[in-house]
Design a protein that fits this description.
Largest sheet of chain A: 5 strands, parallel
Number of strands of chain B: 14
CATH architecture of the largest domain in chain B: 3-Layer(aba) Sandwich
Largest interface: A-B, 57 and 63 residues
CATH architecture of the largest domain in chain A: 3-Layer(aba) Sandwich
Distance between the termini of chain A: 48 Å
CATH topology of the largest domain in chain A: Rossmann fold
Strand content of chain A: 5-15%
Radius of gyration of chain B: 22 Å
Structural class of chain B: alpha/beta
Helix content of chain B: 40-55%
CATH class of the largest domain in chain B: Alpha Beta
Radius of gyration of chain A: 26 Å
Largest sheet of chain B: 6 strands, parallel
Number of helices of chain A: 20
Number of helices of chain B: 17
Distance between the termini of chain B: 57 Å
Oligomer: heterodimer
Number of strands of chain A: 16
CATH superfamily of the largest domain in chain B: Nitrogenase molybdenum iron protein domain
Chain lengths: 513, 424
C-alpha cells in the first residue's frame, strides 16, 4: 500500500485507451465497473476530441458479482461488435475486473466474432499507463502485421504517437517533412490514425521511426526481429538531435542525408545578444525519460543553461536517465512521488523548471518559472496552433516556449537596478505576462529574531541575521533562490553559523562568473 | 404545500434499461466534500485508477496538498488480508503524524477494496479507538460497483449519522453539502423567520457537532441523499418533504414547508421572502428568454435531474423530452414530480448507446450530459450543458436562481453568437 496524492501516470488500461482512441476502426471492450468511464473525459475534454473514445465498458455492479459478470461481458462484446463493426477488437480488464478473474480474452475467443480479437493482459497492480500503451500497441502489431514485400520507394512507419500524447499530432507532420526532404515516404503512422488494416501492412516499410520509446519500443523490437525492419534510436527533438536523426536515417537507408534548415531559427536566436541573459540559468528537468533526455541536451548545448537536476517518473527509462545524469554531473531523480519531486525542486532552488503540468503547479507554489516539456499535460498543452516539439519547427517552438516564462534581457537589469521602485519590482512579475500589477508593500521592520536557514551539507545550524535577510530580499526573485543557496553553502563550508550582509557579498564574489 | 395541485408526473411510467452506464463513481464526491469539511481527510483505499479519477474528474486540479489521497493497493496487499490491515494502520499513522490538523478521517472504500472484501468498518473502529479523542475515523464506500457520482456524498453523510450524540432538542437539520454562500443565505432566511436552532449536515468542522433525536426535523437540500434520509429516520428524526430549493418556485415551496412545520405566520413568511423572491423572478425571467419554448434532454448524472427539469419546465418555459436519472427516489423527488406536467420520457439507469440513439432522433435544443459525452455531441451539432457544473456551482435558493437559469441559457446563447462562416 502506498499513499499517493497526485499521479504522473494512470493505470495501464488508460494506456490501452490511448492506443485505441488514436486508431480508427478498432474497438476496445473493457471489463470494468461504471466509475471507470471517467477516462472518456481525458480524451473528450483535455484533448477536446470530437468523438467518444471507441471503448465499451461492461459497467458491472456489486449485484452482478458472483452471478453473471461473465455473461455481461459477452453481451457487451457482442453489442459492441454489432453496433460499431470494427476491423478488430481488443479486450481486457481494468483493475477491479482483474480481481474477479473472468478472463475477457478467453471469453471473447469463444464467441467466434468474424474479426481478430486481441486479448490484453495488463497487470493493474504492478504497471502503469505507458506500459499499457506500449503493450497494447505491441499486441496489435504482433497479431496483425506480417512480413511483406517492401514498397518500391524507401518508406518508413512512424510509430509511437497516441491519443493524449504531448504534441504527437504536430510531431507527425514534422517528422513526415523531415523524411520527405530525403525523398523517403511514410508507409503507416501508428497507433495515431491507423486502422487495423493499416497495421496489417506495416511490413511493407523499409524501417521504423520510433518517435516515442515510451509507447512503441516493444513493437519496434518485435518488428526488427520478425519483419527485419531496423528502427531509429534518435528522437529528433532539438537542433542537434534532428541533425543526428537525419544522419541515422541516412545510415539505415543508404539515402543521401538532407535537411532543409532554412526555417530553423533556434541557433541564431540563441546566439543573438539578447539571449546572453540565458547563460548559466539553473534549470531542473522532470518528465518522461525520452523528453527529459532530449530537453537536457537542448538546455545545455543549445540554450546555454546549467542543468542542476533531472529525473523521470517512468521506471522503464530509469537506466537511461541515470546514465544521462552522470553525464551532466547530477543525481537522477527516478520517482513517481509528486511530493518527492517538489522537495527536490525546493532544495535545488533552480531558476527554471522544465517539467510536466505537475511541475507547473510546483513552480507556481515556489515562484519558479516553468515550461512544460512532457506528458502528463492539461488542456492548455493542446494548443490550436501548429506546435510540434520535433524537427526544425519543434526547435523554434521550444526556444519560444522556454524563454517565455523568464524575465527578459534588459528588464532583468532594470529590476536589479531599481528594485525599490514601487511599481517596477519583484512581485510585479515579468511585464509580458499580464495580470494586475501589484504595488509593493513597504517592508516591515526586520524581526528581532534571526531567521533559520537550511543546514546545507553540514550539521551546523545556519541563521540569517536580520540585515542580511533584508538584503537578500532586495535581490530579484528570479535569482534569490540561487543567492540564498550559494550563501548558505559558502557559509557552511567555512563553518560560519551566522550570515551577515558581508557573508552574503563574500559568497557573491566567490561564485561570480 | 396545500396550494400546489398534485396532478403531476409522479406516476409516469419509468423506462429502465440495462447497458453501459456513462457516469462517475461515488469517489467523485470527495472533490467537494473535502473543501466543505475543513478538518477532514478522505483516504481512498483503492487502485491507481481511483487516484487518477480523483485528479481528472474535476477537470482541474487543486494543487495545494489536498485533504484527500489514495492508498494504492499493490500486488502484495492482494495476497493476504492481515497484511492489508497492517499496511493501512501504517499509512494512517504516517498521514496523521504529518497532518495534525486532521480531526476526522474517512476511510473510503473503492471497487477493488470491496471486491477483496477489505473490512474498512473494522479498521475504522480500531483506528478510532487508537486516535480518540483527537481524531474520529469513519468509513464509507464510494465504489463504482455500489455508488453513482453524488451517492458518494450520500454514503459519507450516512456514515456520520450513527455517531452523532443523542439530543431531545427541538431543532431543524439541513441535510446536504452546500457552497458556503448558499448555506449562509439559507440560514439567514430561516433565522429571519425565527426558525432555530438550525444545524447543518455536514458541519464545517468536527467541533461544530450537535446531537439529534426525536425532536429533530430535517429538510433535504440535495435530492441524492436517500441513505442519509434513512439513517436520520432510524435516529428518530422526521423528514419535511418538499420540492427542492431550485428557482423561485422550488425555494418558496421548500421554505413554506419548513415554515409550516415551525408555525411561521403567512405575514412573517411574506415579509422575509418577498424581496428575494421578486429578485429571483426577475433574474430567472431574463435568463429564461432564450430558454422559452426550447426542448431539453437529460442524461443521468447527479440525481438533480428531476428537480432541475421541474425548474426548467415550470419557470423557464422549456419542454422536457427525456429526464434520465441514475436513481429515481420518489420519496425525495416525488414533490417535484407532482409539480410537473406533460409528456416526457422518465428514465432510470442507463444503456448509453440506446440513449444516444434517442437523443439523436429527438434533436433537443439543449442536452444536459456528462463530460465524456458533451464534446462529441456538440460535434454532432447538439447544444450541451455539462452536468457536473451543476454540482460545482452555487445554484440553490433565491439569489442563485438566475445563475441556475444562466447555466442552461449560456450554451444556447453561445451557439447563436458564434459565426465562423464566410460573410457571403
Amino acid at each position: 500500500m502506498k499513499l499517493t496524492v497526485w499521479t504522473y501516470e494512470g493505470p495501464p488500461h488508460v494506456g490501452a485507451m490511448r492506443v485505441a482512441t488514436g486508431m480508427r476502426d478498432l474497438h476496445y471492450v473493457l471489463h470494468a465497473p461504471q466509475g471507470d468511464t471517467y477516462a472518456d473525459l481525458l480524451f473528450t475534454m483535455i484533448e477536446r476530441r470530437n468523438h467518444r473514445p471507441p471503448v465499451t465498458y461492461t459497467t458491472f455492479q456489486a449485484r452482478d458479482l458472483g452471478s453473471d459478470t461473465a455473461h455481461l461481458f459477452k453481451t457487451a462484446c457482442q453489442d459492441a461488435y454489432d453496433r460499431f463493426r470494427p476491423q478488430a477488437l481488443i479486450v481486457g480488464a481494468s483493475c477491479t475486473a482483474e480481481l474477479i478473474q473472468d478472463d475477457p480474452g478467453g471469453m471473447a475467443e469463444t464467441m467466434d466474432l468474424p474479426v481478430p480479437v486481441i486479448p490484453l493482459e495488463l497487470p493493474s497492480y504492478q504497471r502503469k499507463e505507458n506500459f499499457g500503451a506500449d503493450e497494447t500497441f505491441f499486441q496489435i502489431v504482433r497479431t496483425l502485421a506480417r512480413p511483406m514485400e517492401r514498397t518500391a520507394r524507401v518508406t518508413a512507419n512512424l510509430i509511437g504517437p497516441t491519443a493524449l500524447g504531448f504534441r504527437h499530432r504536430d510531431d507527425i507532420t514534422e517528422v513526415t517533412a523531415l523524411l520527405a526532404d530525403m525523398g523517403i515516404g511514410v508507409n503507416v503512422v501508428g497507433p495515431m490514425g491507423a486502422s487495423p488494416d493499416d497495421i496489417a501492412r506495416m511490413g511493407q516499410a523499409h524501417f521504423n521511426v520510433l518517435m516515442y520509446p515510451e509507447t512503441a519500443e516493444s513493437a519496434a523490437r518485435w518488428m526488427e526481429r520478425e519483419l527485419g525492419q531496423p528502427f531509429t534510436k534518435t528522437v529528433p527533438i532539438g537542433v542537434g538531435a534532428t541533425r543526428d536523426f537525419v544522419a541515422e536515417v541516412a545510415a539505415i537507408t543508404g539515402v543521401e542525408p538532407a535537411l532543409d534548415d532554412s526555417r530553423l531559427r533556434l541557433p541564431w536566436y540563441s546566439a543573438s545578444v539578447d539571449s546572453t541573459y540565458l547563460t548559466g540559468k539553473r534549470v531542473f528537468l522532470f518528465g518522461d525519460g525520452t523528453h527529459v533526455a532530449a530537453a537536457a541536451r537542448i538546455a545545455r548545448d543549445e540554450m546555454g543553461f546549467e542543468v542542476v537536476g533531472l529525473g523521470c517518473y517512468n521506471r522503464e527509462q530509469a537506466r537511461t536517465i541515470r546514465a544521462l545524469a552522470k553525464d551532466y554531473g547530477v543525481e537522477a531523480l527516478i520517482t513517481d512521488d509528486y511530493l518527492e519531486v517538489e522537495q527536490t525542486i525546493e532544495a535545488l532552488a533552480p531558476e527554471m523548471i522544465l517539467g510536466t503540468q505537475m511541475e507547473r503547479h510546483i513552480g507556481k507554489r515556489l515562484g519558479i518559472p516553468c515550461a512544460v516539456i512532457s506528458a502528463p499535460v492539461h488542456v492548455q498543452d493542446f494548443p490550436a496552433r501548429y506546435s510540434p516539439q520535433m524537427g526544425i519547427e519543434g526547435a523554434n517552438v521550444i526556444f519560444d516556449t522556454w524563454v517565455h516564462p523568464l524575465v527578459m534581457g534588459l528588464e532583468e537589469h532594470l529590476l536589479t537596478m531599481f528594485r525599490e521602485d514601487f511599481e517596477f519590482h519583484d512581485e510585479a512579475g515579468a511585464s509580458h505576462h499580464g495580470g494586475a500589477a501589484k504595488a509593493r508593500v513597504e517592508e516591515q521592520e526586520a524581526e528581532e529574531t534571526p531567521a533559520p536557514g537550511a543546514p546545507a551539507q553540514s550539521s551546523i545550524e545556519i541563521v540569517w541575521l536580520p540585515a542580511a535577510e533584508k538584503e537578500l530580499k532586495k535581490i530579484p526573485f528570479f535569482v534569490r533562490g540561487k543567492a540564498r543557496r550559494n550563501t548558505e553553502t559558502y557559509a557552511s563550508e567555512r563553518g560560519v553559523s551566522e550570515i551577515s550582509v558581508d557573508t552574503l557579498y563574500e559568497a557573491k564574489a566567490h561564485y561570480a562568473r | 404545500m396545500k396550494d400546489l395541485a398534485p396532478t403531476g408526473c409522479r406516476d409516469l411510467p419509468v423506462l429502465k434499461q440495462r447497458g453501459q452506464h456513462e457516469v462517475f463513481c461515488g469517489l467523485t464526491g470527495i472533490i467537494w466534500l473535502h473543501r466543505k469539511m475543513q478538518d477532514a481527510f478522505f483516504l481512498v483505499i483503492g487502485s491507481r485508477t481511483c487516484a487518477h479519477l480523483l485528479q481528472s474528474a474535476a477537470g482541474v486540479m487543486i494543487f495545494a496538498e489536498p485533504r484527500f489521497g489514495t492508498a494504492i493497493l499493490e500486488e502484495t496487499d492482494l495476497a493476504g488480508m492481515a497484511d492489508a490491515q497492517e499496511e493501512l494502520d501504517r499509512e494512517v499513522a504516517r498521514l496523521l503524524s504529518r497532518r495534525t490538523d486532521i480531526k476526522q478521517l474517512f476511510l473510503v472504500g473503492s471497487c477493488p477494496s470491496e471486491v477483496i472484501k477489505l473490512d474498512l468498518a473494522r479498521a475504522a473502529e480500531r483506528l478510532s479507538q487508537q486516535y480518540a479523542p483527537n481524531v474520529r475515523v469513519l468509513n464509507f464506500s464510494g465504489s463504482g460497483i455500489e455508488t453513482t457520482f453524488t451517492q458518494g456524498e450520500d454514503a459519507c453523510l450516512a456514515s456520520m449519522v450513527p455517531v452523532l450524540p443523542a439530543s431531545d432538542e427541538r431543532q431543524l437539520l439541513l441535510v446536504g453539502a452546500l457552497p458556503d454562500v448558499v448555506e449562509e443565505q439559507a440560514l439567514g432566511l430561516l433565522a429571519d423567520m425565527g426558525i432555530g436552532p438550525v444545524r447543518v449536515l455536514p458541519a464545517a468542522r468536527a467541533a461544530d457537532e450537535y446531537g439529534i433525536g426525536e425532536n429533530t426535523v430535517f429538510a433535504m437540500t440535495q435530492p441524492f441523499l436517500g441513505d442519509t434520509h434513512g439513517a436520520l429516520e432510524r435516529r428518530g428524526a422526521r423528514h419535511i418533504p418538499a420540492p427542492f430549493p431550485f428557482g423561485d418556485e422550488g425555494t418558496t415551496a421548500w421554505l413554506r414547508a419548513v415554515a409550516d412545520e415551525f408555525g411561521v405566520s403567512d405575514e412573517v413568511f411574506e415579509r422575509v421572502t418577498a424581496a428575494p423572491r421578486a429578485r429571483a423572478q426577475k433574474a430567472v425571467a431574463q435568463a429564461a428568454e432564450v430558454l422559452r419554448g426550447r426542448s431539453v434532454f437529460f442524461f443521468p448524472d447527479s440525481q438533480l435531474e428531476v428537480p432541475l427539469a421541474r425548474f426548467l419546465t415550470r419557470e423557464c418555459g422549456m419542454q422536457a423530452v427525456e429526464v434520465g436519472t441514475p436513481f429515481l427516489h420518489k420519496g425525495l423527488v416525488g414533490p417535484d414530480l407532482d409539480l410537473m406536467e406533460g409528456e416526457f420520457t422518465l428514465s432510470e439507469g442507463q444503456d448509453v448507446d440506446l440513449q444516444l440513439d434517442r437523443v439523436r432522433a429527438a434533436q433537443p435544443d439543449l442536452t444536459v450530459c456528462g463530460l465524456g459525452l458533451a464534446n462529441p455531441l456538440e460535434a454532432e451539432g447538439l447544444t450541451t450543458k455539462w452536468a457536473i457544473e451543476l454540482v460545482f456551482t452555487p445554484v440553490h435558493f433565491y439569489e442563485q436562481a438566475g445563475d441556475l437559469a444562466g447555466l442552461f441559457s449560456r450554451p444556447i446563447r453561445r451557439r447563436d453568437l458564434l459565426k465562423v462562416e464566410a460573410a457571403e
